[in-house]
Amino acid sequence: MSIGSVLNMARAGMNAQQAAVQTASQNIANATTVGYSKQTLQLATTYPTVFPYGSIGTGVSIVGITRSRDALLDASYRQSSGGAASAETTSSALGQVESVFGEPSDTGLSASLDKFWTAWSDLASDPSNAAAKSVVREAGNNVASTLNNFAAQIDQIDQSNREAMSNDVNQVNSITKQVAQLNNQIIAAESSGNEAPDLRDERDRLLDQLSKITGGQVIIRSSGNAAVYVGGRMIVDGSSVTPLVMNNTQPPTVTYAGSTTPLAGVTGSLGAEIDLSQNRLPAVMNKLDALAKSIVQTVNSIHTSGQIFSGTPPVASPAGNFFDVTTPPPSGTDPRLTARGMRLSPTLVNGAAVAASGGAATGPGDNTAALALANLRTTAVSITSANGNTTTAALGDYFNSMVGDLATETQQATDDSSVMGTILASAGTRRDSVSGVSTDEELVSLIQHQHAYQAAARLVTVVDDMMQTLLDIGR
Length: 475
Prior knowledge:
This protein has nine helices and 14 strands. By secondary structure, it is α+β, with helices and mostly antiparallel strands. The chain has two domains: 3-68 and 437-473, no CATH class; 75-194 and 271-422, no CATH class. The longest helix is centred in the middle third of the chain and has 60 residues, at 130-189.
């Protein structure tokens, strides 16, 4: 072996340790960068020189730079991320709906219904009292206004959810385009056989976001391409992308581009938003509309059978509707038989139009109608929702049961969100234990490579001394 070969080994050692120092510096600089994976310089001995007495090494070579990543931990994290985002979105929306009702409360619908029945009871005690009739009218108007307000707020929650759904669809389409572009860049960068860690980190960061929104399954192919399946269908594979489309129907739907089949089997925030718009929020509104419809029809059926008296001497005339009922359109639901459109009858301009007397009344002192309406506080009636489900219960009890069911559903969603959040945190910790950067470890590595570099540099000095000795001998 020549002295020159020793010098080559020293040079290779210095180059290798310099690259190792640069790699450690890169890790330290990106220790807090989201989505960054620790990079490791791969070194290997070069082919030895074989002599009759044995083999002598010829130095070190840089094989490449790899990143620390575990595909199984990635899959576990992304699955947990989609579940956690779904539970959090559902919990947040149901919490908003629950706050709309605000029960128990002195100003909620339960209190308004109690005041309404109490006002009828007071009127039954003094059927000809004009002030008591005015109180009945105002109490009825308060019931209608409360339901109107509930419906408006739930509509606003639904609209916000629709906007969030649209934003998520747009974000999914943007991310899939970026993933497709990165797929092409990664294949080109890795054509030499070396890994492109920074490009893969960027793609994995985008895939994490995509999984959080859709809960999609990610498959990394041997070619380096990443494929993503959402709802059992591919939305990105290599450079091929299938966009999602949001259809502004009622309720809104999300489909694949070129398809009319609604997206199904989706988790993540988008899956929760679809579920809220198509199932949970309509279910609440159906129950609220069923309650409003039952109040209108039940109160009107008793009120229109009564009589009002006017003039001197008092003359009886049939009472009209207490709540407004319009002629239903050719198709659809009468808007006045919903929580959104419930209101007092236009004929009920003042308390004088309120009927306390029954149909067989002999004078204004009769309280048959008022008493029957007061008894609605505890009278079970048939309440049918838009989906055909029928419940028999007192009107106030139906609302309380509805609020109780919502509270249970909200609590379950909150518990799910807490559990899934814990699972996600655990999955993130496990993944970070592999791909995360430990600055303490990197500093130790930095010192080791620094000393190795100094040793290689010292080897150059030794070779220089040896060559000088040879030159001195030849003089």
